[in-house]
Amino acid sequence: MPKKKLSEIRLGRLEMQIMNVVWDKGQATVHDVKDVISRGRKPAYSTILTMMRKLEAKGYLSHDVDERTYVYRATISRQTVRQGVIGDLLDRLFEGSPLLLLNSLVEQNRISEEELREIRKLISKRRR
After folding, report:
1. What is the SS3 assignment for 12?
2. CA torsion, points 51, 45, 80, 99, in degrees to nearest 10?
3. Which of 15, 94, 109, 111 could cross-link to 11 by cystine, CB 3.0-4.6 Å?
């Protein structure tokens, strides 16, 4: 896969669900993904197949053929996607400011006391 810039990483909700299944399993067929995703919203097999083909065209997945079954693997790490999505979110909604993002999370009570302690540890470690 040609290296994507972090700012170019764009995944919709269903694409993220599919990628999460592939990352969690290491590799997955369309049926594997459908079985996991079908626990909530129930997209059709053909919808998942189409999305996985699009993810492959975008360079996020690749496949091998096992007999007549396509087995997909991620070609991009979960961490890389997280970094790209967070970077895009910071730029579009928070003027590039992590402080504005954190402030928003704190105001919405989205950060627990334990998470605040972990954030403090990360900041302390970063300063060293």
Report:
1. coil
2. 90
3. 15
